[in-house]
Request: fold
Amino acid sequence: METLVAISIFSISILGLLSVLASGITSTTYAKNKIIAGYLAQEGIEYVRNMRDTFVLYDYDSNGNPIGWASFINKITPCETTKGCFFDDSSVPFSIPSNMAMKNLTLNPCSSATCPNGLLLYNSSTGEYGYANNGTSSGFVRKVWMIPNNLNPSNEIQIFSEVSWTQGSGNYNITFSENLFNWVQ
Reply:
């Protein structure tokens, strides 16, 4: 009888330890995914900021007048919806030094508010996330959108970058935002 009680206590102790271990692994995976999502959301903001800077610094009309901010706004206007858009950087010639490389960044409208066509692929050999990098599904979906500033619509917009993912039975997302200004007058 004593042996049976001892085995029961030992079994319950082991089950408790396994439960704590499983909870720790789940928490670690969530923390890892949240860090990756944060980096991917910030990357979305950086892409849009880089596109703004490229247009503002290097886009001129035939008379040499700067038209960059207006060109940037025209390029990002399709993202002014509740659905947002995703960008495909495979058309950007990063390997060729060019002041206007970011003009080639393609912004594509999302098909729905969850932007399933914004699913990022992960290339395990390079460690890169992207849309056309011959990788496997990462589970992360990124979308960006913009809202014009009502007080200063011709010189300021607010950019949002959201990354969402599913883990277990829960859906998670992280959203970053930043105000971008027409800093050249």
Q: What stands out?
A: The first helix runs from residue 2 to 58. Residues 2-181 form one domain.
